[in-house]
Automatic annotation (TrEMBL):
This is Methyltransferase family protein. Keywords: Methyltransferase, Transferase. GO terms for molecular function: methyltransferase activity. PANTHER family: PUTATIVE (AFU_ORTHOLOGUE AFUA_2G14390)-RELATED, TRANS-ACONITATE 2-METHYLTRANSFERASE-RELATED. The keyword Nucleotide-binding does not apply.
Length: 256
């Protein structure tokens, strides 16, 4: 299917979406927190968390004494966060504010078809000298194992479904050019991957990713239910071990 139909691919009904998002936080939060702490998050830092999801990073920023605003197209999961202002906004079209010391978005830019506009709005939200930190994945190594790629057809089907909605499978690398194009300086990038053990909680994040996409993958004839069942069963099997995607963290500074 060549054309795309831009929308947020995970905005469909899935009764385990809350659990899926929580497992993603569990997998990626420690690395994100370490990198944001290096950039500087402390008392009085003005932070904007974009596409905040359930808000674990916004809550962590507020816990360090920062002044935090969290925005998302869907704010229904951003409840009960102490010290976090919540605003509904679409980062591709809406002015998301000004004068922030730090703007952060994880697993967001990769999903929006109009990536350039999203990065422009985020750069505009920085004060001179402030930092933009984008975290998006490069999915190339996902499911690599010691002896090949696990369930390559299912992996390809899942990413085809996401790409149909506007996702880019190598967005982590694209972010470098997107940030340079809006005039940010000192742009630097690094990647981190996790080793995932079958049957563990991190493996369950990948299983729920496939479950969320299951109806769409089958409806478009990309794979059948038995192939997805086999992949999900492998993900739940202790002894299996594979690489996650690479989470690429790109940091840039607005000229002072
Ligand atoms: C994969 S989730 C990641 C959530 C969170 N950043 C995390 O890493 O745990 C993507 C989030 O981006 C939000 N989102 C998608 N498109 C958006 C847009 N155009 N503007 C603002 N938020 C968006 C979704 O509603 C969702 O909460």
């Amino acid at each position: 299917m060549a054309e795309t139909a831009p929308h947020y691919v995970f905005a469909t009904d899935f009764e385990r979406e809350e659990e899926r998002l929580a497992l993603g936080e569990r997998l990626w939060d420690p690395g994100t927190q370490a990198r944001l702490a290096e950039v500087g998050v402390g008392p009085g830092t003005r932070c904007l968390e974009v596409g905040a999801g359930r808000g674990s990073i916004a809550a962590w920023m507020a816990g360090r004494g920062a002044e935090v605003t969290a925005v998302d197209i869907d704010t229904s999961r951003l409840t009960g966060l102490h010290g976090v202002r919540v605003r509904q906004a679409d980062v591709t079209t809406d002015d998301i504010g000004r004068d922030y010391d730090l703007v952060h978005a994880r697993l967001v830019v990769q999903h929006v078809a109009d990536r350039a506009s999203a990065v422009r709005w985020m750069a505009a939200a920085l004060r001179p000298g402030g930092h933009l930190v984008l975290e998006d994945t490069d999915s190339t190594p996902l499911f690599d194992t010691a002896d090949g790629i696990m369930h390559e057809r299912v992996k390809r089907a899942a990413y085809a479904e996401m790409t149909y909605a506007g996702y880019h499978p190598r967005c982590g690398l694209l972010d470098i050019d997107l940030m340079t194009a809006v005039g940010l300086v000192d742009v630097r990038a690094e990647g981190r991957a996790e080793v995932v053990e079958g049957g563990g909680l991190n493996a369950r994040w990948f299983a729920l990713w496939l479950e969320h996409l299951r109806p769409a993958m089958i409806a478009r004839g990309r794979v059948d239910a038995a192939e997805i069942d086999a992949a999900v069963a492998d993900l739940a099997t202790p002894g299996h071990r594979w690489l996650s995607q690479v989470m690429v963290t790109v940091t840039g500074r607005k000229v002072a």
